[in-house]
Amino acid sequence: MNWNWSHVDDFMPLFWDGVQLTLKALFFGTLIAFSLGLVWAIAQRSERKWIRWPVTAVTEFIRSTPLLVQLFFLFYVVPQWGPSMSPLTTGIVGLGLHYSTYTSEVYRAGIEGVPAGQWEAATALSLSRRRTWTAVILPQAVRRVIPALGNYVIIMLKESPQMAAIGALDMLGQAQGYSQATFTYEAISVVGVAFIVIAYPASVLLRVLERRLVR
């Protein structure tokens, strides 16, 4: 098979559109996943059963359901009862909501890894519950789990092509459409290389960060 560079040149405008959409979905989806995951983790430690049990049930349900099914539900079913969302917004919400249930487990492990003496010290100093969380527990817990959270960013990147199923044309969605229209394979190859170029340096950076944080 010969590589036809003319097809690559023609595909590049679509490719960059796909890159922008992928990075937007990844950025905002990560914000949702990290912030909502922390909310889930704290709520699951609540002393109130009426908070803890429903949150646990919801996170377990979301974690046990395929991301693609959730994207279809958000895009096709939710508008029957409420406002509809664009494909990109649906992809962002879907990625963020789905992976918030995984980051919640990461936060939970970090919180449980904080020595019991830190809780006791906060109690001895008569710190309020909010002050204990914000000044003592969370700074230590988050520092411990940053590398694990970073891994989920890479996983979200690799899962982002599923958004194409609802019309959000990320890098792979653009390549698939172009390849089907032109009966060529170069666009798929470009996207494959792009994922490697983005994901591999990120994974190396995470390993470096992990080594520094565990010192």
UniProtKB/TrEMBL annotation:
Annotated localization: Cell membrane
Asked if the record carries the keyword Cell membrane, the reply is yes
Q: Does the keyword Transmembrane helix apply?
A: yes
Which InterPro entries does the annotation name? AA_ABC_transptr_permease_3TM (IPR010065), ArtM/GltK/GlnP/TcyL/YhdX-like (IPR043429), Ectoine_EhuD (IPR014341), MetI-like (IPR000515), MetI-like_sf (IPR035906)
What is the topology of this protein in the membrane according to its UniProt annotation?
Multi-pass membrane protein
Gene3D superfamilies associated with the record: MetI-like
Primary location group? membrane
Keyword entries, A-Z: Amino-acid transport, Cell membrane, Membrane, Transmembrane, Transmembrane helix, Transport
Q: Where is the ABC transmembrane type-1 domain?
A: 19-206
- Transmembrane regions: 20-43, 187-209
Q: Which family is it part of?
A: Belongs to the binding-protein-dependent transport system permease family.
Specify the protein name: Ectoine/hydroxyectoine ABC transporter permease subunit EhuD
Q: Which organism is it from?
A: Streptomyces huasconensis
